[in-house]
Design goal:
about 425 residues, Rossmann fold, Alpha-Beta Plaits, 3 domains, ten-stranded mixed beta sheet, six-stranded parallel beta sheet, 14 helices, 16 strands, about 35% helix, binds NADP nicotinamide-adenine-dinucleotide phosphate, binds L-homoserine
């Protein structure tokens, strides 16, 4: 059997301890599959004397992850600390400079520094692998980089933040408001330390930016992702969308258009009977569309110790077997800087508003929509006890610009109470 592949693991939290557990418990299986043993030389975390539920006694300890990355007995740095900068980036850079490969689960670091890190790694003849950074246990990076390499990708979509999908589906099933379910998710430990990363769409936006780079051969451009979180989604919208045959999802969409690269992470309506519409709880789903393959749907756990460590180990095993690919599939030096699309692809929209229930009110709204060039497909007015009537409108395909000008005009009308809500309907 060949020489062992020796890991240095920086970060011993949820994912790091999961990786240690797999390396310890499945040593024989890993060695058989890779044709060489996979071992751990040293580990690092903030606090040495913490009971992590797994024995670390046989590994050297490093207080400094950079020192860990530079050790002579480490072939691969497994970076599982997190954070876009700080020790994660420093250790990754040190590993590459010292001639080591890197496996990471850190989408924030790659969304912000992926291009520079990939260039440095490839110039040094090293690889950076990041399967666990996108959709946890779903091997979507591998599917896109390898299995679909013969396709021109036409669209990449995904529900890639399990916490948001848990909140939205729990609101629907229990009929609870956003604030109550948010509290519940916090108590269950689902939310990141900074909840804005989840509910603000940032975490999922990082993941989308990484997939877009692979799919379209472009430099990672997280700044160009149009981001909107789920904080403004009300139980009324969830109920009304369901009445019209839709579910609300925090949906990421990346597509190359004649207007440039479109990257959106925002709450959208999807048909209730579609695979995305049926996705419940904290599960993730990625939909990949290519010119040859048509559509592929991948569904699975997006987080948690086992699923995320499983993805990390997939990368480790590739390195152990000698598989070497550019970080984003295309060599980093050849990745193009894509122009971001300034406007989104036209789509139907769902509109909800509270209208004074009096003669001519609906006609005024319809006139403003007509004036903005927005055509109504379906509409519904609900019974009500007070003086304003909840009205829902589903439009035909239109532009975001036309919807925005219609909404601005509606807000000026004396028959519309409050601010109307508009959500895009994604055709999936
Ligand atoms: P975590 O449980 O918070 O663990 C982080 C680990 O990093 C801890 O062991 C911590 O040490 C260590 N650490 C933090 N700062 C450090 C520093 N300055 N120097 C040395 N060690 C430091 O995080 P996690 O959930 O395992 O996530 C790790 C990575 O995986 C992140 O990039 C995350 O986004 C990604 N990820 C996680 C999941 C998931 O389900 N958890 C899913 C997909 C991707 P102490 O233990 O001593 O505090
Ligand atoms: N916070 C993420 C989620 C898991 O809820 O999906 C880590 O990517």
């Amino acid at each position: 059997m060949s020489d062992p592949l020796r890991l240095g693991i920086a970060g011993l939290g949820t994912v790091g301890t999961g990786v240690v557990r797999i390396v310890r418990q499945k040593a024989n299986l890993l060695a058989e599959r890779a044709g060489r043993p996979v071992t751990i030389s040293a580990v690092s975390a903030r606090t040495r004397d913490k009971d992590r539920g797994v024995s670390l006694a046989t590994y050297d300890w490093e207080d400094d992850p950079v020192a860990l990355a530079r050790r002579d007995d480490v072939d691969v740095l497994v970076e599982l600390m997190g954070g876009s900068d700080g020790p994660a980036k420093a250790a990754t850079e040190a590993a590459i400079a010292a001639g080591k490969d890197v496996v990471t689960a850190n989408k924030a670091m790659l969304a912000h520094h992926g291009q520079a890190l990939a260039e440095a790694a490839e110039a040094a003849g090293r690889v950076i692998r990041f399967e666990a950074a996108v959709a946890g246990g779903i091997p979507v990076v591998k599917a896109l980089t390898e299995g679909l390499a013969g396709n021109e990708m036409t669209r990449v979509m995904g529900v890639m933040n399990g916490t948001c999908n848990y909140i939205l589906t729990r609101m629907q099933s229990a009929g609870l408001p956003y604030e109550t379910v948010f509290e519940e998710a916090q108590q269950l430990g689902y939310l990141e330390a900074d909840p804005q990363l989840d509910v603000g769409g940032i975490d999922a936006g990082h993941k989308l930016a990484l997939l877009a780079a692979i799919a379209y051969g472009t430099r990672v451009d997280f700044e160009a992702v149009e981001l909107e979180g789920i904080e403004r989604i009300t139980i009324e919208d969830i109920r009304h969308a369901a009445d019209m045959g839709f579910r609300i999802k925090l949906l990421g969409v990346a597509q190359m258009t004649g207007r440039g690269l479109e990257q959106r992470m925002s709450p959208c309506l999807v048909p209730a009977e579609s695979p995305l519409g049926q996705l419940e709880g904290g599960t993730n789903m990625v939909v990949l569309e290519g010119d040859q393959v048509e559509q592929i749907v991948l569904r699975g756990p997006g987080a948690g110790e086992g699923p995320t460590a499983s993805a990390v180990m997939g990368d480790v095993m590739d390195i152990a077997r000698g598989a070497r690919l550019p970080t984003f599939g295309t060599p980093a030096a050849a990745l193009a800087a894509a122009a971001p699309a300034r406007t989104a692809t036209p789509a139907p929209y769902y509109l909800r508003m509270a209208l004074d229930d009096k003669p001519g009110a609906l006609a005024k709204v319809a006139a403003e929509l007509g004036e903005a060039g927005v055509s109504i497909d379906r509409m519904r007015q609900y019974r009500h006890d007070d003086s304003t009537a909840p009205v829902l409108i589903v439009t035909h395909k239109t532009t975001r610009g036309a919807i925005e000008s219609a909404l601005a005009a509606m807000e000026r009308l004396d028959v519309v109470a409050g601010t109307p809500v508009a959500l895009r309907i994604e055709q999936v």
